Amino acid sequence: xxxxxxxxxxxxxxxxxxxxxxxxxxxxxxxxxxxxxxxxxxxxxxxxxxxxxxxxxxxxxxxxxxxxxxxxxxxxxxxxxxxxxxxxxxxxxxxxxxxxxxxxxxxxxxxxxxxxxxxxxxxxxxxxxxxxxxxxxxxxxxxxxxxxxxxxxxxxxxxxxxxxxxxxxxxxxxxxxxxxxxxxxxxxxxxxxxxxxxxxxxxxxxxxxxxxxxxxxxxxxxxxxxxxxxxxxxxxxxxxxxxxxxxxxxxxxxxxxxxxxxxxxxxxxxxxxxxxxxxxxxxxxxxxxxxxxxxxxxxxxxxxxxxxxxxxxxxxxx
Amino acid sequence: xxxxxxxxxxxxxxxxxxxxxxxxxxxxxxxxxxxxxxxxxxxxxxxxxxxxxxxxxxxxxxxxxxxxxxxxxxxxxxxxxxxxxxxxxxxxxxxxxxxxxxxxxxxxxxxxxxxxxxxxxxxxxxxxxxxxxxxxxxxxxxxxxxxxxxxxxxxxxxxxxxxxxxxxxxxxxxxxxxxxxxxxxxxxxxxxxxxxxxxxxxxxxxxxxxxxxxxxxxxxxxxxxxxxxxxxxxxxxxxxxxxxxxxxxxxxxxxxx
Lengths: 318, 257
Fold this sequence. Notes:
The complex is a heterodimer of chains A (318) and B (257).
Chain A: H1 6-14, E1 20-23, H2 36-39, E2 43-47, E3 72-81, E4 87-99, E5 104-105, E6 107-109, E7 113-120, E8 123-127, E9 131-138, E10 146-148, E11 158-160, E12 165-166, E13 172-173, E14 184-186, E15 196-199, E16 203-206, E17 212-223, E18 232-236, E19 251-254, E20 259-267, E21 275-283, H3 289-314
Chain B: H1 8-18, E1 21-28, E2 45-48, E3 53-54, E4 65-73, E5 79-93, E6 98-101, E7 107-110, E8 113-116, E9 123-131, E10 136-143, E11 150-155, E12 164-167, E13 179-187, E14 192-208, E15 215-217, E16 234-240, E17 247-256
Antiparallel strand pairs in B: 1-17, 2-12, 2-16, 3-16, 4-15, 4-17, 5-6, 5-14, 5-16, 7-8, 9-12, 9-14, 10-11, 10-13
């Protein structure tokens, strides 16, 4: 039966409907800190699973039970970290790739069609607002690359949180001619925008001697609390403020999106922070369709205001 | 007395009337270390300490022990530790590809409800170093819903060392999250060693970001079920994230129910 009480969570977990997930993180090994006037104030570090990951190109998602039939909710988490700011469990949805070494329209969208969607507030297939992130996979050299979220002909470069096609006017400039791989930054959106549903084109206005990047849309799931070494945080997603996150990824409009479950560390510098953690999860089951939509919609409604506030703060750039 | 967890007063009464169970525990993995996981066998390295703690007998009218307070310390290492009730669901002796049936996951009372448990943390534990080159281990099991004949497979590293543990959760059949029982284990290769599929019902855990940090766990106020540990059941200890030699020190405080 569906989750309707706290007791349901306990009994479902005891029945094996859910898993205990100990996840160990691969610490990023490089990154170039942001420069306010060029990239904005924040660096976004991508942390993937320790086993199997070789940065920057081979990224392994935190392991989940296969082919989840329903929502897998986080109900509790214990985490430890080196001194950390802005660590979030997150889904990284791969939107496409960009060639930074050639001028002009250089974005290649993945086959999967965006937006990615979830059931929100009782409505199925609602677009999820994502934080756009550019993650460097081939280092730049010689010349600092710069680009706009638009086409060379003046057409739109992204779809914003409201579903509108937007022609970007704010140039993103990398922090250095030799920007290191694994460097990640939020893309510069127009001042009225707080996120994206899709990226459609990136126009390289100044090409580097080399360089390539992956464009991700990042969906923040839950914060991973501790802020200093030798502290452990405990998160109760049931009683400690309702926040049961669904670990089942959002779905592409068409096709299959490449979704990486990992950690994003959003901070003013590129210094690597590492968090290991252990999650308790419970699998939902659907017997009462209406009840489940209300439950899931309620959870998302609690999440959205904080996410929008965060995104608005992020994109207040000079 | 039943249902010590019904209220703090009930728990305090049991502690005062029956006496608390305070148990120190230490264990060390083999000095040679263990074998790291790969993406085909768990994706998170794990070790199982070779010594377990056996729940003692309890007084007349009592059923077992709840642990409202567990402290775990990984000496000299930043680590994630876990302890839990462990059940050997099945064993494979590689020589002869010989399977021996174990027990099924037990029935436990959780929040006043009798529950047929299934482990949410199934593992493949190497109890004797394997002599096997990248063996594919196939496990036939009954899933969390009671459906029999489900299968999954993992590919182990060559000659996995004693004490290595490999998470089975990511490799279960599509839609499965737990195991109630194991009805078969087989290997595609190998001439020696012993392994077992174990089911764990967690009692406590601690992630630690530094080698000098110890963590106190209580599931009293945490949304995880507290399981009654019954006499003669085994509590096993696990370490995640490393395959180097390691030690665990623990203090478990139990109250009778």
